Structure formats: C-alpha cells, structure tokens
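2024-03-11 09:14:02 INFO worker-7 job=invfold-0412 stage=load source=structure_tokens
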C-alpha cells in the first residue's frame, strides 16, 4: 500500500510519454497542471519531435531520461500504448497511467491486449492504472497525472475530500459539485477499465491519507471486494465515512455498465448488502454525495435519530414533521421541563411542544432562536435540529438568527440543518458555516443520512470464531435429493420437519403411522428438484392406505419420467403462523450470500427478501426482516400473535455458517417454506434443496442419510 501512496500519489518524478506543448491537448494538460499546482518533483516530457515542452527539456525516449521515473503517464494511443507499457516495465517504472481507450471495453481483441499489458507489468512489479482513464490527481502534492478539463473550469483547492471513481466523467462531476459548494478536494482518481489497480485498492491508499476526512466512490462493478472491504475496515478504524455510488442498479443500467467498462455487473441487492456489511453508505448520484459532504466534514456523529423542528411558521412545522416521517426521523418527545423552558421564551400563542412554532413573533424579537435553542439543547431526547424558515426579509435580523444557530451548534456539537429557499436568508447561514438547503426534504435527508451512516459505522461487527466442517455425499453432483438436503441441514442445527424416506409402499404406510397425524407425501429424486411442478407432492394425507397408494403412484411417475428413484418421503404436516424462505448461494464476486424473506409459492414473483453477507448475527437478521413489506406481520396484526422471528433468524445464521463452512462444496441452499410459529413456538424447515458446488465430493466423507422408515 505504501508503494501506491509513493509511486502514484506522491511520485518523486513523472514522465509524460506523448507530451505536448499545447495545454489543451491530453499530453499537455498534466504538465500544465503540475506546474500550476506546485508539484515539487521532476517532470520529464517525452516527445522525440521537440527539444523543449512547456519550459521543460523534452526527451526522445524513456531510456534517454536521467533517471527512472516513479510514475509514467502514457498518452500515446494504439500499438504505441502497448509498446510504451512494455518499455516502462522493462526499465523499472513503478506505476503507469494509461489514458488510451480501445482495450477491454471494446471486446475480446482489446481485452487480449489489455491482459498482455498487465502480464508485462506484473512480471516487472509495475502497477497499471487504466486503461481508458482520465488519470490521477493529488492536489496535496501537485502530482496530477490526468487531463480533466474540470480542473480548468473550476480551479482546484486542496481539502479533506478524496474521490475515487471508475469513471473519469463522474470523478470530474463530483469534483465540480464539491468545489461549487466551496469545499476543497485533495484526491481525484479515475481507475477506468481497472486492468490492474481497482477502486478498492486505490480507496485503501487514499484512506491512509490522514488529512482525508471524507471518501467518495463511484463504481459500475466491484471486481475486488476484498480490497474494498479492507478500505472500509481501515476507514472505520479512523472514523472516515465512505459514501459510494454503485451504478447499474437496473437491468438496463447493468447492461450499459458492462458495455462501458467490460466488467461483470453485480446483482444490486447483493451490492447493498455488501455496503451495509462494511459500513459504506450508498447514494444514487454525485449530487447526493456533494449535498451531504459539508455535514460529514463538520464531524457530525449523532447518537440517535430523534429530531427537533423549529420554525416561524406553523405550516412549515407541519411540513417539517411530514418530511421527517418520510426520512424515518421520529420527532423527539421533549421533557415537560424543556417545554416549560421553551414556553417561557415565547409569546403565549406560540407552540412549545415539538415541532416548535415560534410564530411571526420572530419579526419583533430577533433573539427568539437564540433563546429557544439553548432551552432545548440539554434535553436528552434531542439528537438532531432542523430550522425551517419559509419567509424572512426586511425587518428580520437574519444575521442574528445565523449567529445564534452557529453558536448553538458550536456549543453543543449537535447537528443543525437549515431550510431557506430565499437566497438572502440562506447566505448568512452559509456564511456562518451552517448546513443550509433550499427545502426541508434535502435538509432532513442529509440529517437522516448522517444519523444512519453513523449508526452503520459504529455497529458492532459480528464474528464467527469457528465454522462447521460441512461435507456432502461422496461424488455428489448437481442437486442433493430432498431427504439428503434435509439431513445435511439437520446435522448442523437447522430444525427440520420429522420425515422418513421410504422405498416401498409398506414403508410409506408404516411411516404415516410413525408420523402420527396428517402427513405430506413427496417423491424424492435428485433429478427432480421442483416436485410440485410434476404433481409429485400430496398435502394433507389422512391415512396409511393413502400414503401407500401415493407411494405407488409417485414411484411409477418417476419411472415414466426416466429419473432416479431415490424413494418417497413421508413427513409430518407442519403448520405455522407464516411461511418464510431462507436461501444461500455462492456469489461469483462476493462469496457466500444469504437471503431471507417472505416464502411460499409466490417468492419469485414478489421477491420480498433481504440479503445478508456472512458473518452476521441474529439481531442483524431481525433488522433485515423489518425492512420488508411483510414487516408489520412480525409484531402481529388483526389479532394474530407476534412471530418467532428469533427462531427464523437462528436458521438464517445456521444456513450462513453451513454454506461458508462448506468451502465451495455447496453452491446454493433453498429452504422454502420455513414455517414460523408464534413467538416462542419456533420455526421449522419443511422443504430443502441443496445444490452441490465445484468442490463437492473431493475427499469428502459421506453424511448420514435421512432417517429410514420403520420396517
């Protein structure tokens, strides 16, 4: 990591291969920028047709330089790009930024050239940035190996923000939006095709810059989640918030992202889970990143989400309460002594409860904000403060309002956001450093984001000290049959329905008697994972004779289908309050992933599920369930009792440990339905399907089969 910081972000010398004297050309911009922004290292233009470029001696080749540069910026295109990279690798350059496009993003031929350059670089210990990138820019050191026009349109200013982006356009846009708000930016780096260095690796390097207080990311794919996770872990250690955009949320967006970067697009809910797991806050676009930046830089770390609304308009109080509800910010229940203290400062017709309406009396007493805010400050229920000013102007001492708000924030350290659509009102608040927005929606959105992100970063990290040793039957491929699937899960603590695997009609009749009540009879074949689609499931079987008859029918149907006849399952009918599902799979990028949510036959159509990445706790599962559309059912509705979601959460944790412990021997697990009873009644898996992974059967010992039927 130190190599990234020194050779690319703080190089001692930079060579520009394809340098130009014209500052408006790609080969001229970096030299112009480095001279303008105080780069103290050596600048080596390489252009065999010129003796001097922008006041610097020009060299005919990399070999003609007086030293091997730390960083080379490759501006030439086509075959010359590949040759330049080969030359850099051969001569010991530590890092190379490749501007040219026409590689991995264009198809197989371009990808082959890209991989060739990577191989040459890695063999020599050189790191590559790009290709297809706008380059790197560190305004703390003046090392600018990039050509973005935005650095001319909006003059740079060093500051505490880092931007790392796969897209050069998005890095420039985010930079411009931040500078438009008067915020300084130190790092603006674009990784392009990520042939070698990824956003995650560069984010980790930037996170090690002690002066960076906010890190903003733009991604279209996550190709190296381990490195991004490491960056997030280091950021949490030093209380550095990371706000990320992950484009490609929709199917159309994923297709566009793939054509743009040539990278694998990630499934969106899994990306959400990955970000939550690592304390990264996700937003939709650069405008949202820039909108919240000032709040983060102020160091806001609220203890909770309880909000106090203050306005000089009753209608604005109402609208503020509505907007707070939209953002999931509960209005603080102020203590009676707090309300009394507020009331003592207001006219009798004002409202001292929350929202606090100080009325038009503000016109005659400009000190009301300064009186009310301290009265509320010490109330332990107040985490966040929102001041909504729908109108002010002549006769109002807005400067005093702003000074009082700033003094309150400085004294208490509690977040204060202001909504003021009149520029004449907003400007004094901004001048005092108060986070000011044109409407209550934006103001409360930022307060909610910072409160939520703070909680996410401070969340205790779950650890699974040990994982079970999970094996599948020797030589198993494809899907295990249902009996083996249930048996495997039961061995690892997952509660499964009592069942028997029968291999004759008599065994089926005996099994029905052993179950003791109504039963479910199902065909069992590893080659028929979805039995109900073939009429191979019977519910509510009421007699032993019926169970025996169904055995014969299902056995004959499997023979007719030409599939393996593993037997017929007779299982107890199990009722619950609600049907849920728990699933797990090995994601090609993120590894083990667990899904939990509404179950039953409509699970694919409704997709009311939440995704978690191991390791996670029972509490995290319950929190995820409360984000679903069916969440109101958890606590009971219309006379129904609360559900035993703790038991469901235990199953989800166990399934996560099983798929992680299998270490590739299991590709997926599908439990649907999982019957969840009322609180205290537990949860039971009544149907299971385990898919073997690539590592299945490699030296594994056979697991115990399902319990045999009574002979």
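2024-03-11 09:14:09 INFO worker-7 stage=emit residues=711
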């Amino acid at each position: 990591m130190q190599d990234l910081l020194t050779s690319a972000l703080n190089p001692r010398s930079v060579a520009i291969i394809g340098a130009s004297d014209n500052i408006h050309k790609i080969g001229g911009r970096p030299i112009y920028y480095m001279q303008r922004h105080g780069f103290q290292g050596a600048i080596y233009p390489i252009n065999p047709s010129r003796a001097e470029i922008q006041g610097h001696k020009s060299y005919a080749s990399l070999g003609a330089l007086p030293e091997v540069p730390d960083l080379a910026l490759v501006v030439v295109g086509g075959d010359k790009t590949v040759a330049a990279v080969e030359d850099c690798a051969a001569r010991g350059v530590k890092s190379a930024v490749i501007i040219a496009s026409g590689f991995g993003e264009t198809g197989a031929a371009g990808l082959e050239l890209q991989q060739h350059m990577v191989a040459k670089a890695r063999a020599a210990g050189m790191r590559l940035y790009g290709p297809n990138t706008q380059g790197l820019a560190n305004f703390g050191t003046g090392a600018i190996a990039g050509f973005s026009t935005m650095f001319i349109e909006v003059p740079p200013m060093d500051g505490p923000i880092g931007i790392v982006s796969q897209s050069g356009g998005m890095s420039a846009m985010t930079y411009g939006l931040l500078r438009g708000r008067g915020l300084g930016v130190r790092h603006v780096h674009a990784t392009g095709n990520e042939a070698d260095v990824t956003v995650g690796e560069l984010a980790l390097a930037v996170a090690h810059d002690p002066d960076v207080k906010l890190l903003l990311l733009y991604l279209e794919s996550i190709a190296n989640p381990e490195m991004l996770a490491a960056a997030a872990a280091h950021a949490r250690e030093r209380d550095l918030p990371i706000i990320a955009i992950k484009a490609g949320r929709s199917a159309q967006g994923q297709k566009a992202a793939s054509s743009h970067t040539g990278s694998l697009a990630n499934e969106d809910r899994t990306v959400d889970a990955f970000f939550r797991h690592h304390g990264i806050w996700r937003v939709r676009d650069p405008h949202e990143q820039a909108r919240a930046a000032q709040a983060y830089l102020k160091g806001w770390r609220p203890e909770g989400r309880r909000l106090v609304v203050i306005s000089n308009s009753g209608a604005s109080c109402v609208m503020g309460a509505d907007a707070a509800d939209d953002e999931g910010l509960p209005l603080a229940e102020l203590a009676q002594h707090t309300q009394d203290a507020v009331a003592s400062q207001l006219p009798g017709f004002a409202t001292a409860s929350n929202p606090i309406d100080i009325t038009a009396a503000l016109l005659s007493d400009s000190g009301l904000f300064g009186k009310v805010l301290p009265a509320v400050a010490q109330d332990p229920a107040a985490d966040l403060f929102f001041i909504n000013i729908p109108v002010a102007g002549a006769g109002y001492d807005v400067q005093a309002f702003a000074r009082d708000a700033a003094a309150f924030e400085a004294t208490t350290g509690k977040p204060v956001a202001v909504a003021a659509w009149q520029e004449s009102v907003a400007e004094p608040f901004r001048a005092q450093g108060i986070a000011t927005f044109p409407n209550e929606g934006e103001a409360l959105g930022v307060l909610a984001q910072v409160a939520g992100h703070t909680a996410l970063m401070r969340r205790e990290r779950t650890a699974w000290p040990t994982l079970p040793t999970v094996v599948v039957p020797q030589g198993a491929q494809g899907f295990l049959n249902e009996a083996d699937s249930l048996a495997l899960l039961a061995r690892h603590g997952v509660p499964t329905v009592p069942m028997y695997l029968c291999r004759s009609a008599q065994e089926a009749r005996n099994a029905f008697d052993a179950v003791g009540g109504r039963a479910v009879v199902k065909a069992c074949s590893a080659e028929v994972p979805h039995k109900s689609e073939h009429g191979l499931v019977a519910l509510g079987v009421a007699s032993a004779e019926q169970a025996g008859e169904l055995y014969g029918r299902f056995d004959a149907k499997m023979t007719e289908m030409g599939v393996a006849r593993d037997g017929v399952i007779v299982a107890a009918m199990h009722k619950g309050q609600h049907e849920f599902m728990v699933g797990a799979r090995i994601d090609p990028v993120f590894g083990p992933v667990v899904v939990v949510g509404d179950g039953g036959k409509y699970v694919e159509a409704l997709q009311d599920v939440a995704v978690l990445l191991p390791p996670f706790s029972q509490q995290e599962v319950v929190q995820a369930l409360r984000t679903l559309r069916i969440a109101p059912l958890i606590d009971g509705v219309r006379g129904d009792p609360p559900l035993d979601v703790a038991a469901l959460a235990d199953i989800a944790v166990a399934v996560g440990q099983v798929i992680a412990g299998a270490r590739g021997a299991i590709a997926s697990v599908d439990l649907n339905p999982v019957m969840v009873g009322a609180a205290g009644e537990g949860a039971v898996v009544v149907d299971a399907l385990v898919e073997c992974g690539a590592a299945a059967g490699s030296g594994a010992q056979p697991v115990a089969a399902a319990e045999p039927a009574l002979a």
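2024-03-11 09:14:09 INFO worker-7 stage=report msg="The chain has a mean pLDDT of 91."
2024-03-11 09:14:10 INFO worker-7 job finished
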